[in-house]
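cron nightly-structures :: item 1 of 1
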Amino acid sequence: MTPDLDFQAPSLEELQPHFPAYEITAFIAQGGMGAVYAARQVSLDRPVAIKILPRQFGADPQFRSSFEAEAKSMARLNHPNLIAVYDFGDADGMLYIIMELVEGKSLHHSAYGRAIDQEEAVRLVAGISHGLAHAHQHGILHRDIKPGNILLGPEAVPKIGDFGLARPVGEGHNPDEIVWGTPGYSAPEVVNNPGEVDQRVDVFAVGVLLYELLTAKVPSEPWQPPSAVSQCSPEFDRIIRRATHPSPELRYAKAEDLAKELDELGDKLKKPVLRRAKTAAPAVAGRSHPPVGMRSATPAIAVPQAKSQSVPLMGILAAIIVLGVLGFILIGSGKGGDDQTSATSPKQESPTPKPKLKPKPKPKPSPVAEIPEKKDKPAPEPAKPKPVESITQALVRLQAKLKSGNLSELPKGTVKRGTSHYLLITSARSWIAASHYAEAHGAQLAAMSSKEDLKWAVSELKLTSPCWLGLSDSGMEGKWYWVDGSAPSEDLWAAGQPDETTSDDGGEDYAALLPDQSLDDMPASRNLPFILQWTEGGNTGSIARQLERVSASLKAKRPVFPAGTQNINGSRFLAVPESMSWEQANSLAEGAGGHLAVPSSQEEADWIGTSMRELLDQGEGCWIGGRQKGTATPVWTFVTGERFDFVTWAPGQPNPGDGSEKYLQFGKGEDSAFGYLNAAGGPSEARFFLVEWSAPSRRNMPSAGEANRPAGAEDWLVKYRQIFRDGEKASHERWKRRHDKNIKDFISEMRSETSTARRFSREAEKLIDGITDNMKEQGEIPASLNLPDWARWAGRAVEKEHERAVAKQQGIWEDYETDFEDAKSRYCAQINKEIRRRQAQGDREGAAYLGREEAAAADKPYFLAILDGEFPEVPDGLGDDDE
């Protein structure tokens, strides 16, 4: 079913009456497939996520049936590396599903474009493999494993989500089903033999994911071992090669087998650590195993030791009390030492027989607690500990209030100083992500302008590692400013800082507070804890206030750009994490002395694409400074009046629809591929907007009298044909060499067979020359030579050679035909995409011209001429001029 682009997510107030058993605390995200909210299940006092689907889905009986089947399948799964499903149903015509709330980012968001440590990679992928093995054991395939579908929970435990393509193992392929996972992660049989897919398609995708984590890219042909691409252990080569083998029979048969090998490799790679000696205390009955993939290192948020021990102790006491009430535990009972019953016995296959009492039993030490002699009165049940709300949970619950400026309640751990409130967030993020997190919760990254401020923060917040503050020189080239607009004093910096060193992500442009009470400049990509600051009366360092100050600084010719601004060849760009309409975003950008961003060069276009891919999660978008103008012949334009160039549309875009989607954004189109999309301009369609400050001299302005539309269709086609031919050169020239040699050999044989006749007959000489010239002109050996009656001697002489040459020519073509048809399909698909782009742009003449090219390319000789490097003239009268 097609996503509902007009779907408006219900407000918290509208939704709450339909979920009396839950307290809906916050809106998380929205897309065409629905909206997700954070909530608390009142009865169990646990956080949950509620996903609401548009009404159109609930009205479709087939979709409803599929939805219920999927929800039931997922509810049967119970594993720490899978996102749990708790319930599903219908709320006022909207289907919903209630699931575990994972407080973390996707693996794509955390690791895209970056190779990670091999120990961390094997830990994550081992956890994913164990989760998949559990799903497979319950008969469920995932079929779309990729970084975007892996969420990282507390302690970076990987959790597999989005079983939207899941189906039972062994279920037959539906021929009408066209969605098959994500290119690059899908096994070959998904396309070549979809009826035979099994759990090994998930194994293949996991192997690709592991390769990507180690090398920062997915495997490609020719295949290179990951150890040759990155500095990882060669032991990964064999595991990944087997997991991603093109033949399913040569892969791991089960995800469990892959998980076992990864566990063993993970143990080998672990660095030696000091551990306490293991005690001989027996295991506690019913204690669950930790999630696979849990970090063994010190957690980001420290948990007091006494608290961590209270849970198993309460479990032990509860077990003792219950067994005591049933009369199954008596100290010193049983026959001798072998028959003694222990409260901490890990298993009991049958009810324990009533122990025989012995006079004056010899007391024995208990591993947990002394049990009273009195047996007729059970010990009182311990009080249920009240759940302790984490900082993250508190921020989720309070997000709407904090965002509105209501500081009447703040998370536990917040410290007040003057009119400001400070909170240390120990979950590490990049500076940009930390800034966006602060903005989403009505805060700013802390601004501390004096040595006393830094000393106080280190002491009061108990800092033990560097943490981000709201200080940056991004976009300012060495001029540092706090987010509140003030400049830092030099005595705040550590010795030798800030320095002029650069990093792979463009420089060290952001400041962190060190435990020694000084500042250091660090690269944006470094993941660090950070300090939030709320100020009574409003945050002077909020992005809105920073944007207000930019306009004034530009007028004074002393520009101070907001923290987080990026300088790309002299143009400054800032991604603002606010959901608002395109018109509102454009107005705010103009009020800040800038405009919604426009790609003025290929370098800027590449930067926008790369940064947006890192920033945007599934279903999110970012407003760009483009819109469609005109009614009769609508044309796409940029707000700056620049040429509408350097725009690469996402698959399936632009969507002409009813003409209402006339605003430009960057996001995901069909097949989850990024690119530009046209949208209706509503506030729910984009999570960000991109502001740009640039000088007119740097803009891609049209020349006098030039129409603001793409380059001419003929110029575009000349360039595209050349690019396409270069890409197909190897395959085509291999066929052409064999094909031309066959013609040359046949001509040679034919001349040899007729040499005597040609010496004595001018007519024979002309006949053979004519046949030769015709073959060279047509570029192939004809099926029949069509010899005249008087030249039957020639037919007898060359008949066998002709039959042989024609058969060989056909065989050579059959070897190449699949590649040829594939190439033609790709060529026409790109032509069609350009046709739709020009139609949306209002370039009807160019669209009609390319429509004739698309029709002509279906002809074999025409397309062969293109591949040969010729430029056959686009014929008239083909295609629909109105298209």
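cron nightly-structures :: done
The radius of gyration is 35 Å.
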